Amino acid sequence: MGNEPLNLLAYNRLIAQKRILTGDLMHTYLTKRVHCYVAVLSFALALAAPAFAVSQEAAKHGNQANQLAQQGKYDDALAEFALAIKVDPKEPRFYLDRGRVYRIQNKFPEATADFNEVVTLDPAGDLGYFERGKTELAQNQYDPALADLNKAIEINPSDVEAYYRRGLTEYHLRKFDDSLKDYGLTLEKDPTFSLAYERRADEYVTLRKFDLAQTDLEAALRLKPGDATITHNLEYVKNSIAMAAMTPPPSATPPPTPPPAPPTQGFFTPLNIGIGIAILLVIIIVIVVVGLRSSGRNEPE
Predict the structure, then answer these.
(1) Alpha carbon 223 to chain centroid distance?
(2) Are 65 and 84 in contact, with CB atoms under 8 Å apart?
(3) To the nearest whole percent, how much of the chain has pLDDT over 90?
(4) Which of 46, 45, 126 is nearest to 92 (CA)?
(5) DSSP states along 58-103
(6) Which of 186, 139, 143 is nearest to 167 (CA)?
């Protein structure tokens, strides 16, 4: 254990002090120090007890499973994890690692089931909530993902990736202010986290803040020189800024409003009415004249 060298040095110091400590004073001094060491050692063993609780057989299968997973032999790794869990079904680490392998294979229901088991076996730990949140995010289950990532950060506020994943989740929920805050916290804790710059740049593009997106993409490119995706996105942002500069600004004063078109007049205009009345009068006069003439012919001579 890590404290053993310190305990040995302390014991040597006690032996050396025999030269100046004698009698009851020496006995009292040694007794207090020994009791102190016993208490510290007991506390350390209590903390380490979960690690010692795993049987050698289960640990052997677990280690073999992780080695197979690193080699890309995922099915063989799953078989070894199953053996480890059969030997020790109460060890959350086996479920945690197996769930990660399931997620690599896009077997999300199986992965979620394993992470549920981790939360059940170790509710005070952050990893079960964190890995389950990542799995929910991968399935576009944003609300439960946000709840799990919140819990993971509550338990372990120093986990940089948890802030990054929560920022992604908040972006998809269109909680842009919260998302930008979490990306900022990610980069505050780890300024080399390139993906945080890239995803924050994506969000700035969505918000049409191309200058801020350019700054983030340039920072990401410094961390990953020559990256094709970052280079492509940076060119898009620069082109967008150039096009915006070429677009004339809106006029300060709006153009004058054209006068309204004159209303369309119908058939019964004053002029047409006057002409109609005149024609009617002429017809009446003609009828009267013709009638008078006819009456004159019919009178007896």
Answers:
(1) 21
(2) yes
(3) 62
(4) 126
(5) HHHHHHHHHHHHHTT-HHHHHHHHHHHHHH-TT-HHHHHHHHHHHH
(6) 186
Which tokens go with 118?
A: 């981790």
What contacts 111, CB < 8 A, 6 or more positions away?
99, 100, 102, 103, 131, 135
> Could you tell me which residue, 83 or 280, shows the higher pLDDT?
83
Please tell me the distance from the alpha carbon of residue 36 to that of residue 228, in angstroms, as a whole number: 60
Q: Look up residue 189 and give its two tokens.
A: 């804790």
Q: For the segment 202-235, what is each residue's pLDDT rounded down to a tens digit?
A: 999 999 999 999 999 999 999 999 999 999 999 9
What CA–CA distances, in Å, run from 166 to 103, 142, 176? Answer: 18, 9, 12
- Residue 141, exposed/middle/buried by CB under 10 A (0-12, 13-18, 19+)? middle
Please state the separation of Cα 294 from the chain's center in Å.
Answer: 105
Task: Answer whether 92's CB lies under 8 Å from 128's CB.
Answer: yes
Q: Is 72 left (phi over 0), alpha (psi -120 to 50) or beta?
A: left
Instruction: Report yes or no: 92 and 117 within 8 Å, Cβ to Cβ.
Output: yes
Task: Note if the pTM is more than 0.70.
Answer: no
Closest CA to 118 of 139, 132, 105: 132
Average pLDDT of 272-276? 72
163-167, 170-174, 209-213, 266-270: least confidently modelled range: 266-270
Indicate the Cα dihedral angle 83, 84, 86, 91, nearest 10°: -160
